[in-house]
TrEMBL record:
Keywords, comma-separated and alphabetical: Signal
Domain Secretion system C-terminal sorting: 523-592
Provenance organism: Chryseobacterium shandongense
Domain DUF7619 span(s) in chain numbering: 378-504
Protein name: T9SS C-terminal target domain-containing protein
NCBIfam families: Por_Secre_tail
Length: 594
């Protein structure tokens, strides 16, 4: 069979055909058969394919009215040049093979999906539109590797805890950023299993490791180069070994919503703590919630609940490791006899780490999140955890985002992709950090596009997941500017679900203060030697203190009163900002310490 180049199997009532034994086949005619799904993927010789409802001559032909062909797979066929298709039941076409073949489709009104290379998606879209096919999903996500032949740079990253060289006994070092350069720059992050991958064509490549706290770690090798003279599926393997520089504790904690808060329904949240330092840490996390508007239901990880606080204990958290728990509450209905929840109400949450001795960045040991109660669900969304407004002093600092997704279909979703086009005028994409993901994720950053690809996620109907990330806003932004992020979420071969726009406004300090008069918040004395008193008409939940660079330097929680006092503990003098968080919302106030 290997010697056959021309094969004619007209009118054989075939319901299946295996092309793989015909390694040199160039011409194939299957007219008059009943094949519904034809897989010709990875065939090296086929150069054209035609399925039409006319008896014209064609190199590879199928003529079987009434139409049977629903799916044709030509992925990985490097010599394919032209594809002509006509089938009233044609649904999916796979053409991701590293070449820009010409696709012509006629009289195929049911076509839903075409997978092709990035370089040809625009041309295919135009060609299909000329035939009236304007509702076809075209992308590259039928696989997460390039079409056709390509090379791979890969390796495993481990943390050498005992400083005796990395071996199989050492823990993986997940989510560290790696950059690749061949004149242009791309990025990826170490996956949950410790592996990283770059896919390339021929050329010279340099890979550089970029841990988030570079002063705390030594990566060996910190950078390496390799060359590929061709793209014949070469593989270059370079494992990386990470050791610590000294001893530095650095924990962070976050709260992120997994659902909207709707009166009368359950709402879910993610509490995540992450070790950014280079020591192994144990401790606890306290999650404070608004007990007057919601009731605790459950948490995925073991927890202790007391009043309005949920506490998690953790032990032996390795460097760069993170742990997260999903926490479920029931939001009070509007008919609650004493404490109803209604659309527009504000729910305030605070996550705080127990004392972390010598933490080099105590500012991220606490995290505040405020959520507005609404009357509708949107399971596929993006949320900025800092809210819809930030003070001007936070320009150039990290903003955290969570992208939530839910499979609304009736069948499991095998592969999921979250795609984000980052506005370079708003964000420094080089600062992007992947912090947590619900599934094993391969991240690809090219230019200003970030793609989070979850292969074999197998997300069941109604199942949900998320991606948690952070990146810095541009330092060139000004008060009054607006930042926006959104995402496209792909479930298998379906059209992407476009999320909401997560819009964050940068408030000017004067604008914020104009909204704070004596009847809403009173802060005195101002100027102060350090101690300030705060009076408000609403119940104060927490107060955050920011320095003039926008860094949170201390936090006071669990106040639950209309009056409180605090001492600005910084030894520095100058301008500070108080973020006063109440049960009705939050406000900023400038304080001068002299």
């Amino acid at each position: 069979m290997a010697s056959i180049k021309n094969l004619n199997l007209i009118n054989n009532n075939l319901t299946a055909f295996n092309i793989q034994p015909f390694t040199n086949l160039e011409i194939l005619n299957l007219s008059g058969n009943k094949i519904t799904d034809l897989d010709m993927s990875m065939h090296s010789k086929i150069n054209s394919f035609k399925y039409i409802n006319a008896g014209n001559y064609y190199t590879v032909g199928m003529l079987n009215p009434p139409n049977y062909l629903k799916t044709i797979n030509l992925n990985g066929c490097p010599n394919i040049q032209t594809v002509d298709l006509e089938s009233s039941v044609l649904d999916k076409v796979f053409l991701k093979n590293g070449v820009n073949e010409t696709l012509t489709v006629t009289n195929s009104p049911l076509l839903q999906y075409v997978c092709a290379d990035d370089s040809q998606t625009t041309a295919i879209q135009s060609s299909l539109a000329s035939q009236g096919l304007t509702n076809v999903n075209i992308n590259t996500y039928c696989s997460f590797v390039p079409g056709g032949s390509y090379n791979t740079i890969t390796g495993l990253v481990r943390f050498d805890e005992n400083n005796n060289g990395c071996d199989t006994n050492d823990e993986i070092f997940e989510h560290m950023k790696l950059k690749i350069s061949d004149g242009t720059t791309g990025e990826t992050f170490v996956k949950n299993n410790g592996k990283y991958d770059f896919y390339t064509q021929a050329g010279n490549f340099t890979v550089t490791a970029e841990p988030e706290n570079p002063a705390l770690f030594t990566v060996t090798p910190a950078t390496f180069s390799t060359s590929f003279p061709n793209n014949n599926n070469n593989v270059f393997t370079q494992d990386l070994c990470v050791t610590k520089n000294g001893n530095a504790n650095d924990l962070e904690v976050l709260i992120a919503p997994l659902t909207n808060a709707v009166p009368g329904f359950d709402a879910k949240y993610k509490v995540m703590w992450r070790n950014k330092g280079n020591t192994i840490l144990s401790g606890n996390v306290t999650f404070t919630f608004n007990a007057s508007k919601m009731d605790f239901v459950s948490s995925v990880l073991p927890s202790a609940v007391s009043g309005n606080q949920v506490t998690f204990n953790f032990a032996n958290l390795k460097p760069y490791a993170n742990t997260a728990s999903e926490v479920t509450f029931n939001i009070h209905p509007p008919t609650h006899p004493t404490n109803p929840a209604n659309a527009g109400d504000q729910l305030n949450f605070v996550a705080s780490l127990g004392v972390v001795p010598g933490d080099i960045n105590p500012a991220d040991n606490t995290f505040n999140y405020q959520q507005t109660v609404i009357n509708s669900f949107d399971p596929n969304d993006i949320v900025c955890l800092q809210g819809s407004t930030i003070p001007a002093v936070m320009i150039g600092n990290y903003l955290h985002y969570i992208v939530n997704f839910e499979n609304l279909g009736t069948a499991p979703a095998t592969n999921i992709v979250v795609e984000m086009d980052i506005n370079p005028a708003d964000f420094d994409i080089s600062s992007l950090q992947l912090q947590n993901a619900s599934h094993q994720v391969y991240t690809k950053v090219t230019g200003n596009k970030a793609e989070f690809m979850m292969k074999s996620a197998n997300l069941g109907s109604g199942g949900h997941g998320n991606i948690l990330l952070k990146m810095k806003s541009k330092g060139t932004l000004n008060p009054g500017d607006q930042l926006m992020n959104k995402a496209n979420i792909y479930f298998d071969y379906n059209f992407p679900i476009e999320t909401n726009d997560a819009v964050t406004n940068i408030a000017g300090v004067l604008k914020v203060e104009e909204n704070l008069n004596a009847t809403s918040a009173e802060v005195y004395p101002n100027p102060t030697k350090g101690e300030v008193n705060i009076n408000t008409e609403s119940e104060i939940k927490a107060v955050e203190v920011y320095d003039n660079a926008g860094r949170i330097i201390q936090k006071q929680i669990g106040i639950n009163a209309r009056k409180t006092a605090l001492t600005i503990r910084s030894e520095n003098t100058g301008v500070f900002y108080l973020k006063i968080i109440t049960d009705k919302g939050s406000m900023m106030k400038k304080v001068i310490k002299n």
